[in-house]
Design brief:
five-stranded antiparallel beta sheet, mainly beta, semaphorin receptor binding, binds 2-acetamido-2-deoxy-beta-D-glucopyranose, five-stranded mixed beta sheet, chemorepellent activity, 639 residues, globular
């Protein structure tokens, strides 16, 4: 950044808070002033967020698709939120309390709720309970203690904890002993015989996600889990951590020898690769995984979305198929094992509860990694996209636009407490991803702790340490610029109908949507886009000003034109969300008309139109229109 013109100090540093008190949405790189009020202009009634009334440093969120409610576990209590359609949201709390254990400090003595799960008619609740992990059941508003339950909740809320329920079976990565057994394991803690992973098969794992996959034959059902671990390759060039997928047979009964008896006998792991070979960019750190089942119920076609980051905290999304993962485990040789494989081969599930022969166990246990790596789908085996944002969590919604085309829409949380909506379109051969919107879900901007998607009701539920918010997926009223702006947004949930940009779900009849991703606006009834309304301001000579134009489209170049001269031009990817024209010292010839124009291919739209009029009065310094909402950081970023 160059020297700061003295005018920069005129930006109202003390009031960038137009954001506070609003739930809003803005197109990515859009302006702060685009924030919507709580009750949105479309007439959606009701408040879409509720705050806890105090800080909840650790939250866990439980939502059942199809319901309008969300349960959130906090400190010593469970919150119940309801977001009825068209009404204000409401909150109730249920106290869980905690027993006084052998805790050391105040934080330690709390009962952090870390697990919420449906159990029959009630809710199964587990928490740290002052370092005595315990569970409760909540049925009909009554809390009943289930006593100390090791493995269901960790001793402290920061511990890596993953618990997977499947009918009567429960799997967990939580250690059962407080001081012994520090090596993390993946266990079956309820259901069939209790099993755990050998201590040598993973190095310092950080578990991300686990899932059960029902395959063609019940005896072949698998548990897959995703994790990061220290890279066994200590070459200084090699990354410190690697990302993995592991498999286990759900029907694993443990082995026959004393070494294999309570261990998983079907463990194998593979490396998950997410790198762009053409640019040599590697993304090694898995952050989150989302599984999108195939609509026709073919388990092999389940899409596995992985969010990865690199050491600079840039991100990439890679998409894998469960079929590819399964094939790698079924067919690959084992890394570092050069003899012929025993029969049955390591990792194979056996029917009729047959035990795995000790020889097979020994080979797998000493060579747990398969040689072949799991690569992304598509002929190029590259990421779907990469980005300079540091994404943390992902959910994916499969939806059909009004003309029947299917889109996968990704919702990614950023480390700034916002959500990016990314539309994946195009053929499997060459997928394209457009980042079309940034959503600010909270009243108080804060980091997103949890996110849950309800594909049926088309809502996202997100929690921060302060509040819980419901966000509709079909936010269409944010797109300005008439029919052209609506279609150029390329938002598959939105279309043009009766003079408004509307949700395809809210309209009775068909809405206008484009099937031409290059020039969607060509389908609008009006051949020319609407012109921006003229805004006038009177300004004194020899003063400093700036004109700010929100860059609502990710794809357009914005320029400020004064009469016939382009005075400022901002390309897509511009570092500030606004295209700003500075006027250092207003001279007589600088009065007149200023147009901000957005150009994308053959499409040109006027976004702003200002007339600067001479004023010899006392208005020496003046900040114009929407620019008021610019936070200081945006201002400095633009210099
Ligand atoms: C919702 O809450 C707002 C502000 O608290 C209030 O003005 C409004 O009347 C409420 N609406 C309903 C439907 O209760
Ligand atoms: C919960 O309460 C309802 C109505 O009060 C009752 O019909 C139901 O049997 C109760 N369920 C349990 C599990 O107690
Ligand atoms: C990555 O590797 C470093 C160095 O071995 C280790 O300290 C860190 O915990 C690892 N992070 C993971 C597994 O996410
Ligand atoms: C990346 O993000 C993590 C936390 O999310 C932070 O601790 C770390 O310092 C960041 N690294 C860089 C290079 O910015
Ligand atoms: C603007 O220009 C005028 C005349 O050219 C000059 O007198 C004045 O000092 C300038 N103002 C600033 C702030 O540079």
């Amino acid at each position: 950044a160059g020297p700061c013109p003295s005018g920069a100090t005129r930006v109202p540093l003390s009031q960038p808070l137009e954001l506070v008190g609003r739930v809003g949405v803005l197109p990515v790189q859009g302006p702060a002033s685009m924030f919507l009020p709580i009750a949105s202009p479309s007439g959606r009634a009701g408040q879409d967020w509720v705050d806890f009334g105090l800080a909840e440093p650790h939250t866990v969120l439980f939502h059942e698709p199809g319901s309008s409610s969300v349960w959130v576990g906090g400190r010593g209590k469970v919150y119940f939120f309801d977001f009825p359609e068209g009404k204000n949201a409401s909150m109730r709390t249920v106290n869980i309390g905690s027993t006084k254990g052998s805790c050391l400090d105040k934080r330690d003595c709390e009962n952090y709720i870390t697990l919420l799960e449906r159990k029959g008619e009630g809710l199964h609740i587990c928490g740290t309970n002052a370092r005595r992990p315990s569970c409760w059941s909540l049925v009909n508003g009554t809390v009943e203690s289930l006593g100390e339950k090791r493995g269901y909740a960790p001793f402290s809320p920061d511990e890596n904890s993953l618990v997977l329920f499947d009918g009567d079976e429960v799997y967990s990565t939580i250690r059962k002993q407080e001081f012994n057994g520090k090596i993390p394991r993946f266990r079956r803690i309820q259901g069939e015989i209790e099993l755990y992973t050998s201590d040598t098969v993973m190095q310092n794992p950080q578990f991300i996600k686990a899932t059960i996959v029902h395959q063609d034959q019940a005896y072949d059902d698998k548990i897959y889990y995703f994790f990061r671990e220290d890279n066994p390759d200590k070459n200084p060039e090699a990354p410190l951590n690697v990302s993995r997928v592991a498999q286990l047979c759900r029907g694993d009964q443990g082995g026959e020898s004393s070494l294999s008896v309570s261990k998983w006998n079907t463990f194998l792991k593979a490396m998950l690769v997410c790198s762009d070979v053409t640019t040599n960019k590697n993304f090694n750190r898995l952050q989150d995984v989302f599984l999108l089942p195939d609509p026709n119920g073919q388990w092999r076609d389940t899409r596995v979305y992985g969010v990865f980051s690199n050491p600079w905290n840039y991100s990439a999304v890679c998409v894998y198929s469960l079929g590819d993962i399964d094939k790698v485990f079924r067919t690959s040789s084992l890394k570092g094992y050069h003899s012929s494989l025993p029969n049955p081969r390591p990792g194979k599930c056996l029917p009729d509860r047959q035990p795995i022969p000790t020889e097979t166990f020994q080979v797998a246990d000493s060579h747990p990694e398969v040689a072949q790596r799991v690569e992304p789908m598509g002929p190029l085996k590259t990421p779907l996209f990469h980005s300079k944002y540091h994404y943390q969590k992902v959910v994916v919604h499969r939806m059909q636009a009004s003309h029947g085309e299917t889109f996968h829409v990704l919702y990614l949380t950023t480390d700034r407490g916002t959500i990016h909506k990314v539309v994946e379109s195009g053929e499997r051969e060459r997928s394209l991803a457009f980042n079309i919107m940034e959503i600010q879900p909270f009243h108080h901007p804060a980091a997103i702790q949890a996110m849950s998607l309800d594909a049926e009701r088309r809502k996202l539920y997100v929690s921060s340490q302060w509040e819980v918010s419901q966000v509709p997926l079909d936010l269409c009223e944010v797109y300005g610029g008439g029919c052209h702006g609506c279609l150029m947004a390329r938002d598959p949930y939105c279309g043009w109908d009766q003079g408004r940009c509307v949700s395809i779900y809210s309209s009775q009849g068909p809405v206008l949507q484009s099937i031409n991703p290059a020039e969607p606006h060509k389908e609008c009834p009006n051949p020319k886009p609407d012109r921006a309304p003229l805004q006038k301001v009177s300004l004194a000579r020899n003063s400093r000003y700036y004109l700010s134009c929100p860059m609502e489209s990710r794809h357009a170049t914005y320029s400020w034109r004064h009469e016939e001269n382009v005075e400022q031009s901002c390309e897509p990817g511009h570092q500030s969300p606004n295209c700003i024209l500075f006027i250092e010292n207003l001279t007589a010839r600088q009065y007149g008309h200023y147009h901000c124009e957005a150009q994308e291919g053959s499409y040109l739209r006027e976004a702003q139109h200002w007339e600067l009029l001479p004023d010899d009065g006392a208005m020496a310094e003046h900040l114009l229109g929407r620019a008021r909402a610019l936070a200081a950081s945006l201002w400095l970023g633009a210099l």
